[in-house]
């Protein structure tokens, strides 16, 4: 569920970024869209992994 919602949000931001920031028409041109969506998805997954790691380490540290 998390991966699906994360992918949908990243794809939407990628489409908007390619269309408005890069002024690419059509937006589904793979030479621009694939690298941008890949970078966004990689950074988002890294953020989720770091956040999960921190929360779980705090649960273990603070547990009685």
Q: How much of the polypeptide forms β-strand, as a percent range?
A: under 5%
- Helical amount among residues, as a percent range? over 70%
Shape call? rod-shaped
**How is the biggest beta sheet arranged?**
none
Low-confidence stretches: none
Number of domains: 1
Structure notes:
The protein is mostly helical and 64 residues long. The chain has one domain. The chain has 2 helices and no strands. Helix 1 crosses helix 2 (30-62). The longest helix is centred in the last third of the chain and has 33 residues, at 30-62. The protein is rod-shaped, with a radius of gyration of 16 Å. The protein starts with a helix and ends with a helix.
Quick structural overview:
The chain has 64 residues and is mostly helical. The protein has helices at 2-21, 30-62.
Key terms for this structure?
rod-shaped; 2 helices; mainly alpha; 64 residues
Topology:
Elements: H1 2-21, H2 30-62
């Amino acid at each position: 569920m998390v991966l699906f919602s994360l992918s949908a949000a990243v794809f939407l931001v990628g489409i908007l970024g390619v269309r408005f920031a890069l002024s690419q028409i059509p937006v589904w041109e793979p030479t621009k869209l694939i690298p941008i969506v890949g970078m966004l998805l990689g950074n988002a997954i890294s953020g989720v992994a770091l956040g999960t790691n921190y929360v779980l380490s705090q649960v273990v540290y603070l547990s009685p």
